Amino acid sequence: MSYHFPEGFLWGASTAAHQVEGNNVNSDFWVMENLDGSTFKEPSGDAVDHYRLFREDIALMEKLGMNAYRFSIEWARIEPEEGVFNETEIEHYRDVLKACQENKITPIVTLHHFTSPAWLIRSGGWESAETPFRFARYCSYVMRKLGDMIPYVCTINEANISIGIAKIIKRHQINASAVQVGINTDKGTRMQAYYAALSDAFNVHPQEVHSFLGPRTEKGLEIIFQAHVEARNAIRCVSPSTRIGITMSLYDIQSISGGEKQAEHALNEEFLRFQAYLKEDDFFGLQNYTRAVYGPDGMLPIPDDAEKTQMGNEYYPQALEAVIRYVAKQLDMPVLVTENGVATDQDERRIAFIQRALTGVHACIADGIPVIGYMHWSLLDNFEWQLGFSKTFGLIAVDRTTQQRYPKPSAYYYGKIAATNRLADEDSQSIVE
């Protein structure tokens, strides 16, 4: 089957600074990973050493056939103490951007990808009314220094993720408050020790440690989206040619008979109610991995016979097309797929996932929907937060004892699609095999 993607389509992959760079010592997550009794499977440590090996990784992207790279600039490196900006780290990211230029890779920069400076958490984190100002100040500084090299910027990654996290906690019936007051079990004792260490580390009560990845109050959600608005305004002042968006994680929300109202509520809760914050954006960053099916009593469990990913999600690559179509009906702006992928140790299933996802992207484009790029998650097998290095999303495997890179068959498969489309003449057709 032949597909023609638009000229200038962005073919790439994504990473997040904390997950790949290593030694992000001033961030909240570094603190939490290294506490006694930490809930993390393992600390990030050197991660996959992308901080040192970024030139090699970006050159490999170009060699594989990609023309775009979505990565994040780490706030905790740029502003390790409030109001103290590290020029050396700015120069590091300037070098990353130069490596993109040298390899004809379009950079798509995310300014906040889950991790925050530890000082921000000590100052109230993502529940503090001061955070939008502080975030906009950081964004303004970065873009004043580097904006002429950044054509696309995402302010905040998955601004709505706390809603999904709250649902997961409810679904698994995790009673964090009960643990904090003390359950007489080994787990409860361990968690009590962790919360005590957490309190000492941030000098606040554990319930006041408002990192980005956590349950959120309604006030906190407003603060996150207001931070986006203030950052967007600040960036426009210092880098007016940069196109600005936000990214949100969206399920393909479906329903069975009787579940229509539950599905409608979920769509509003996770996406529709935030549209007012997005209307001045230049593009929408869409992130999708699977679907969610609702019945009369809420979200249904994944069928026992369904194929599941390493993350426990349903393997469902066709979700991407459905979500692109839904978003396009709601927002009058280009859509950039900033993340889409699958955690699996069976790379042939990743290849099949990519093929089906891109078939859906092409169908959307053929129907006139302005999809401007596809960023696969992720470029490298990396640090998957609390789950450590056990989950493999990457197009490229990494031997962490040597930090050697090994492109998987899926990397060559995806790269061939990208390269064929990029090099095709206007009248030619490219092929998804």
Automatic annotation (TrEMBL):
EC number: 3.2.1.-
InterPro entries reported in the protein's UniProt record: GH, Glyco_hydro_1
Protein name: Glycoside hydrolase family 1 protein
SUPFAM superfamilies found in the cross-reference section: (Trans)glycosidases
Name of the top EC class for this enzyme: hydrolase
Domain of life of the organism encoding this protein: Bacteria
Keywords from the UniProt entry: Glycosidase, Hydrolase
Transmembrane segments: none
Source organism of this protein record: Paenibacillus terreus
Example of a GO MF term: hydrolase activity, acting on glycosyl bonds
Family, per entry: Belongs to the glycosyl hydrolase 1 family.
Taxonomic classification: Bacteria, Bacillati, Bacillota, Bacilli, Bacillales
